[in-house]
Structure formats: structure tokens, C-alpha cells
Amino acid sequence: MVDMCSGGSSYTDRKGYDQFQQVTNDCPEFEKWGVFVFVGLVWVYFTARPGVLIGAIDAYVLGPAQKVFDNLSGRRNLKTSDFLIGDKLGEGSFGVVYFGCRGSEEYDGGGEV
What's the pLDDT tens digit per position in 36-50? Predict the structure, then answer.
């Protein structure tokens, strides 16, 4: 464990507040509360909705990893010309939704593709 103040000692088999007390044993009371409040605020920020920590992991770790995997497997070689747009299915708060399929055959506007 990293010593936050001078002269902290190691600990084993202790939980939560007891560990905090042992690590910050040589710190002034004001500094203990400062560390405790800072860690609490960081925890609240990272675990608050809409999921800041999960979003950061997704954006900075899982997203690039998925992109590398897709490039290696060849799944990212699609262009807009590879898709066919069919009839309008509906509208909503995200805009107009159309039927679409991937392929080069002509879509006649009805039936199964």
C-alpha cells in the first residue's frame, strides 16, 4: 500500500475504516478528513449515473480494442454503398427509420430480402 503520509505501516486482514486509520495514523486529523472526503467524492463521481466510470472504460479501453479486433477480422471494411435502403418503417425522437439490408441485390420494396 502506498504511504499517504510519513511513517505508515503495513496491514493485513483489516477492513475498511480500520485500514484507513492505520494508513493515515501519522497524519493530522484535518489531513485524514481531507483524504476521506476526496476519496468519497471521487467514488461518487465515478459511480454516479449515467455511469462515468463504465463510460470511460467503454470509450478508452473496450472501444479501441473492438476496433482493432474488427480490423484484424475484416469486419470494418463496409461502405455505405454496401447497404440497400428500403421503405420507411416509422418515425420517432431519433428520426426516420428505414428498412435496410446488406447486399448488392436490388430491393423491390416488398417481401423478404
Answer: 899 899 888 888 777
